[in-house]
Write a structure and sequence with these properties.
With about 425 residues, the chain is α/β, with parallel strands linked by helices. The chain contains 18 helices and twelve strands. Strands 1, 2, 3, 6, 11 and 12 form a six-stranded mixed sheet that branches. A four-stranded mixed sheet has the order 8-9-7-10.
Amino acid sequence: MSTHEPRILKIAVVSGPQYDRLYERLSLFEQQSGVKVEIVFRGSHPELNDFLATSFKNYNSTAPSLLAPELDLISTHIKYAPSQVDFLQELGDDQVTPAERSEFLEAALEACNIQGKLYQLPRMVDSRVLFYRADIFDQLGLTPPATWDEVLVCSLAIRAASVPIHSASKSASAKGIIQGYVFPGKLSGLFGTFYELAMMQMTDLEALFDRNDRPVFDEAVVTQVLQYLRQMVVSGAVPQDIETLYFDEVSSMFADGKVAMIADWPSYYGIMKQKLLHANAGSPSPPRIGVMRYPQGANGKRSAYSGMHSFAIPKSTRDPEASLALLKFLVDDDQQWIEASESGSFPTKKHVLQRLVTETEYKRSCHPDDSEVTLDCERLACLKHTIENDMAMFPHLKTYPELEDALYPLIQDAMMGRASVTEAAKQMKEIAQRS
């Protein structure tokens, strides 16, 4: 980039109400650095992945050409980065010093390595916990589920009770009854649900992937999980349009008071509270939220599908120095604090996590009778325990996103009854072992 040209960084980011608050801070980076930042693409992770794949389809870092995309920084994820490594810039000790690396949670930074080399810096840890409507459970005399079989039983009981939906909006009508439980029924959301259920079903640690991360997909384990998902649909424990729901829709259903149980990500928490608790604060019977670790599976374990959002610098960057400065800005303590304290995301920086724990506990000591403050404490403790003990991490395979894309339609077909469970399990094994 010529020194006579204005410095402009072009970036592509994952977008959504749980992510976009951070991008409002780009103006601060511009003021501090004198470098302009232009978001040239924003979308969901599947949309972002498609955009990046298309942008870099003909890019050759060893022979740059006019086909090189004008991208200086991207959002990515530890699940997707291995498939993008050919166009990502390695972050050596001269770019991210040992002292800077030590500021991150060890497990978070380790997860950002690909074949022992650092290519991304972690933005937030993603791991799901179970939220439930404590007021509805109390009303119906239900105990929060200890196992996944009990999730199905509780969901059916809630459906049978025909609890009406009450809208907090005066302009909106309250229609229908509250669903018992929902989960994402398509794309990577469905595959992640399948993956964590399989991790809680199998007794052989190599039932899905062997010790060398080669796909196995043992038919017996796969069949048992598909049977459970099918039973959820056949019994009416989940909505019949479950296959149309993705993460955003699932989270919105709980926040809008339309479902009594969901597993949800940390960064949706702020939106959930705003819509479900704050909007109903004046109600004669305001909703109460409970939070808990995942129920146990058949093997006695709890496994929550987990990962990490991150930022990386593509080899196409036209201004490596400014790109690195922006990368560090986006994951610095101040930005992580804003995301953690406002959206509810789980930080990857040690000091930020400690501050979050300390301030949350302090608020509880000052307001022991405040139900929202109590929920904040319980949620953070539950999430922290889940991340330390229950994370179901996927193998860092270059072909893992392709495997998800190839297998989730078979899971969906078995779940919805378009294919037999046994045939879907057989096909999943064949496809997985060919990948």
